[in-house]
Amino acid sequence: MMDKEQQLLDSALNLFTEFGFHATPTSKIAKDAGVSNGTLFHYFPTKEVLILKLYEEIKKQLNVHLEKSIPVDAPLKQTFKVYFKKSIIWALENQKEFDYIQQFINSPFITMVDISDTAVTGNHHKLIEQGQEKGELVNLPSQLILALISNTVIAVYSFLKGNNQNQKEILQKSFKQFWKLIT
């Protein structure tokens, strides 16, 4: 990625997480990035394209982080445990990015995402379907299971964000409850 494009994405992340999508004009992003409005629109023809690109880039980073942590042919429970814990730890280490993801998925922009794009959504749907085929996961729509996963990760992240005591124990106990929920 070119330097100016990355500068724009970094500025957009900072400003969107501080002020929100609607209160952050593209002119403010360009100024913060130290480029002209024309340069911003060269890389991102619309504000919506910028918002989506930033989401996709953050999700790709998160998915790469998660995928490299999974042993080949790991049992389903172990895979989910690694995903669960690594997601929360990544969120704590990348709070601005995680907050952006939450802002994005709770906005109308989420409809712009192709959920079949594994670079953005990871292999989560496939993993859920495999678990259901084996009878290891509850038979609910994968979108609902993903929502349960997401909301549990958000809850644990929010709790740990202000409380680092017993992080390992809280992650362990939280996963145990989460696993009961989806099996």
Overview of the structural elements:
This protein has 10 helices and no strands. It is mostly helical and 183 residues long. The chain has a domain of 111 residues: Orthogonal Bundle (Tetracycline Repressor, domain 2), CATH 1.10.357.10. The longest helix is centred in the first third of the chain and has 21 residues. It is elongated, with a radius of gyration of 18 Å. It starts with a helix and ends with a helix.
Please write out the topology.
Layout: H1 3-19, H2 26-33, H3 37-43, H4 47-67, H5 76-93, H6 95-105, H7 118-121, H8 124-133, H9 142-161, H10 167-182
Helix pairs in contact: 1-2, 1-6, 4-5, 4-6, 5-6, 5-9, 5-10, 8-9, 9-10
Q: Main attributes?
A:
183 residues; mainly alpha; Tetracycline Repressor, domain 2; 10 helices; 72% helix
